[in-house]
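Moderator note: this is an archived Q&A kept for reference. The question asked for a predicted structure of one protein chain; the sequence and the answer are reproduced below.
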Amino acid sequence: MIKLLLRRRAQSAFNRLVSMSLWDISVRAGFSLAGLLILALMYYWFGRALGYLYGVSIIGPLLPWKMTAMLFLAMFTMVGISGLISAMTTLYYSDDLKFLFSSPIPARLVFFDKAVETAVYSSWTLVAVMLPFVLALGRAEHASVFFYLYFAVLLIPFVLLGAAGGMALSMALMWFFPTGRTRDTVWLLGSLAMVLAYMMLRFSQPELLLNPGAMEVVSRYLQYLQAPTAPYLPSWWLVGGMQAFLFGKYAVFAKYVAALFGSVLVVYGALAYLSKWTYLAGFNGAQEGMRQNKPHFSEPVERKLFRAGLLERVQATLLWKDRRVFMRDMRYWSQAALIAAIMAVYLFSIRKLPLESADLKSLIAFFNIAIAGFVVAAIGLRFTFPAVSLEGRSFWLLRAAPVPLASVMREKLVLWALPSALVGITLVAVSNILLKADFFVSALGLGTIAAASAVCCVMGVGLGAVFPRFDVENIHQVESSAGGFVYMACCVGYLAAVISLEAYPVRMHFYNKFYSAPWDMRWLSLCIAGYVLVNILAVAIPWKMGRKNLENYEI
């Protein structure tokens, strides 16, 4: 049976590969090359950081391994949290589960198959991020090829143990609360836990380890640096085992290897034993929903806007529908929590910039417009761009109803324009206050980010209509599609054009401030005309293309 399940996965992967078009292959190859480039840059940065740490007197050999232990402890925690979220989908809500349970395969084997899938989904990105660090660490320690080989072997039980905690908690929750609402709660709590871990990692200011002024403080904690970090967790078993192998302590290495693989056998044996009673019961309960028959007496805000003449009847109805979907789907709330965390870390990083000159702060505030615009565009990739595709297989209802598709697109724009503008304006306004930017740069930044937020929102709805995908099972398939790449490329190109056109007025501002140089009104007029033209093109072209494509779309 195990051989049959493995053959099924291999055949599915082969079928997906041979069914890919040339365009899909090109897009995936482009993303793969971009990912390899990012990993190469991370390897270079980790190599520089480790080289600096090894050069510190007295504590140099201790700092890299302490940082390694802390990183793998964080990775173990993140794998556990991600495993909790992934387990809900793979163990209880995967599309192929009904087929697998209807086949003559024992439930325990189905559980094992989905457990391995959960471990892979919850850890592969973290493993990819940590590989450059391990390669840089091995190069700094002049390690042999066996160092990397044994690390790859020990990484398997480490990842399995990290995901096992999330799976055990998800099985317990579905055993005691076997409803679809449990999945939504786990999505929210798991996302909040990841947000909290991300914020704690950033607010701990790990860059202080690379600050020469902080080394005098760190040197007082030699005993702390030499002590194991969470010695009873698999993160230390992995780090301690590799450290023992590198320094020739093979007995200690064998002890940690036995602890890792022995723990995997015990933990997954216990999960398999318990799955005989808990897994099927949780799966059956997951197919049922929770009824809520609560009467609603208040008048919807969309009806008030319609009666005030601010919305059309169709737009008010669709806006009410999308708002209710947003309120019901916990995944949206988890994404909102992540956005709040990104904004907090973003502003914290701005506050910690080592800048002293007031004029340099104003210049950084100008370039901050592009970064804030990129954040708005990235948020649009998650919310605005998939807005049309999220109609899903019910899109035929809109086509069959007497509803202009332009009104549908305007409703999506009304839904997401205000949140996008609030994020962008908040980032720029608070950054300007923290940087104490002058009035000209502050006013220019607020006006630019307000316009850029609106333009990115229009491009998201328009290009989302140009590249609709109504048959996807997961929203991430819409974001990672070729259309999502085109949307981000257009947003980045638009922001680059805007910053380039505004660079000359900013230059004239500083020239006038430093040297009392007069403003060149001809070049200023050209910059303003170019800025207006870029915004008109960025709004009109995607919107018209999207509307035309939806009108000609065959269901």
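Archived answer notes: The radius of gyration is 27 Å.
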